[in-house]
Amino acid sequence: MFLPILFIFSLLPFSHSAVQDFCVGDLALPDTPAGYPCKKPAKVTVNDFVYSALGVAGNTSNLIKAAVTPAFVTQFPGLNGLGLSLARLDLAVDGVVPMHTHPGASEVLFVLEGTICAGFISSTDNVVYFQALNKGDIMIFPQGLLHFQINSGEGVAIAIVSFSSPSPGLQITDFALFGNNLPTELVVKTTFLDEAQVKKLKGVLGGTG
């Protein structure tokens, strides 16, 4: 029985589709759920695969004393379709990346300098996993979970972050709650904060309503 089946399959036509080495994103075309359309091979250069911005410190003179320099597909089109991206994190003294999520990717944090207290919260039972990380330490943050990073040392802190998507997405909880035009009374109801606190936070984070 086995040999006749092999014979039948040997008579069927087989087509071998070419395996594509890469798909450098053509950022002039619309993004799609599968990524950007591929740039024509004749227009691809080595510069599509090299990115230097992560060697420059970000500007931390802001409210959270932190800067994230992304190397996502929109900055680094060679990442298109490869399922990864990176960023540089700079934290001044007392700098913080508040509670936030990346809906589209898991994250790996690698500390290059300083001390960073980092952690995440599980979605099933709200267990918090956090630790002070020193130079050379790595921590992972599973996709979609709330997490944070705080400079807990006495000097600047620097880290490189990698993501399991060229477009990981970002939503910072504080800005989502208080940096929009959702009416104050609704924010009070959904956060259990009093009206004065909500209005103060809206004023700090640019919200209205």
Query: So, CATH architecture of the largest domain?
Result: Sandwich
What percent of residues are in strands? 25-35%
Number of strands: 10
- Rg estimate, integer Å: 23 Å
Q: For the terminal residues, how far apart are their CA atoms? A: 75 Å
Averaged pLDDT: 91
- Compute the number of helices: 4
Query: Main sheet, how many strands, which sense, barrel?
Result: 5 strands, antiparallel
Topology, pairings included?
Blueprint lengths: L1 H10 L54 E6 L13 E7 L4 E6 L5 E7 L2 E6 L6 E6 L4 E4 L5 E5 L5 E7 L7 E2 H6 L5 H8 L3 H11 L4
Antiparallel strand pairs: 1-2, 2-9, 3-8, 3-10, 4-7, 4-9, 5-6, 5-8
Describe the structure.
This protein folds into two domains: 41-169, Sandwich (Jelly Rolls), CATH 2.60.120.10; 176-205, no CATH class. The chain is α+β, with helices and mostly antiparallel strands and 209 residues long. 27% of the residues are buried. It is globular and about 60 Å long. The protein has helices at residues 2-11, 173-178, 184-191, 195-205; strands at residues 66-71, 85-91, 96-101, 107-113, 116-121, 128-133, 138-141, 147-151, 157-163, 171-172. The N and C termini lie far apart (75 Å).
Keywords:
five-stranded antiparallel beta sheet, alpha+beta, disordered N terminus, manganese ion binding, Jelly Rolls, globular, 209 residues
Gist?
Belongs to the germin family. With about 210 residues, this protein is an alpha+beta fold.
